[in-house]
Amino acid sequence: MSVHISAERGEIADIVLLPGDPLRAQFAAETFLSDVTCYNRVRGMLGFTGTWNGTRVSVQGTGMGIPSISIYANELLRDFECRTLIRIGSCGSLQPDVKVRDIVIAMTASTDSSHNKLRFGGNDFAPAPDYGLFASACRAAQERKLAFHAGGILSTDTFYQDDPDGWKLWAQYGVLAVEMEANALYTLAARAGARALAICTVSDSLVTREALPPADRESSFHQMIELALDAAVSG
Ligand code: HPA
Known about the structure:
The protein is built from 7 helices and 9 strands. The chain is an alpha/beta fold.
């Protein structure tokens, strides 16, 4: 039991996939796992455990943004001793060659949030994924011939920004895409000595203003989950 997750110890697997949307957690568990049980309904932030090719895997919704994913990541790492956390999310492209439906595997996660400035007394920490997970996700994406990009992403605190061109500075520095959680996930996993990775499908583009309707996101969501499962068990 923890504050936001009503499971008993042992009910959550060592490997946890983390979509922002709890209904996507349910969809991923029901589509990819067998012998699925739901271990959490607190605040509607659904969590499920099942097996994938004989390996126990959980899928836990995190909500949106650094404060929300930080709550779930902290509790999974501290109270349930989960050791492999893989975010499966969506992101907005900041580069012309990163197209909607493509997959981005996050090699770094910059942020405009002050959460790590607070944590490190004004200094900067460089959050990074676990190399084994990252390399194995890239290898699996190559083998599956997926349209993917490996590089830096931005975890922003503001989905709706006052300055409509604010993203262009990050783009100039080669940042591929923007989402709202990876920087915190990488930081908290590092502190716990655990492994983390963020994989995102591109749901919209700040460059072209294109946005995929939710129904169209499903096939790239499938590819991303398979990639995450492959990376988790082999990385
Ligand atoms: N901004 C922030 N987070 C996102 C976006 C975006 O455009 N798209 C998907 N997640």
